[in-house]
Amino acid sequence: MLNTLFQGIFDTDMTSVISVSDFLLCVGCALAVGLILAGTYMYGTKYTKSFVATLALLPAVVCVVIMMVNGNVGTGVAVAGAFSLVRFRSVPGSAKEIGAIFLAMCSGLVSGMGYLAYALLSAVILGAIMLLYNRMDFGTRKHGLRYKTLHITIPEDLDY
To answer: For residue 76, is pLDDT > 70?
Structure first.
């Protein structure tokens, strides 16, 4: 009864159906990976609650989408295009935020393909590297000029 409840109406003998236990295992792993990545991002970084919550859920969302694509190349390309558009439609973020988003999407992709140990291993290793780079101030200038950026916002209804 439970297996027929989760079958798609377009399923055939040629397509493989994901079992409910495998689905829950992959999504659970993706949620754990999301918590690991969100925790490492929060350490020593200024962040917003909404960004960290999104970062924790993003691997699970990508995991579910990849499991539903299930080897269909055309659908996979369409999903990749949709994911790339999401970043450009939102408020521009810092390079660190974009890197964390891509890391979360990568981990979700690996989880959705069924490589759960690799997803956990990559999240732990890359999260540790992210912490290490943050701790040793990797990429900061030691000497020289420091530049600041001034943002000026002009209202749309102002006649200038």
So the answer is: no
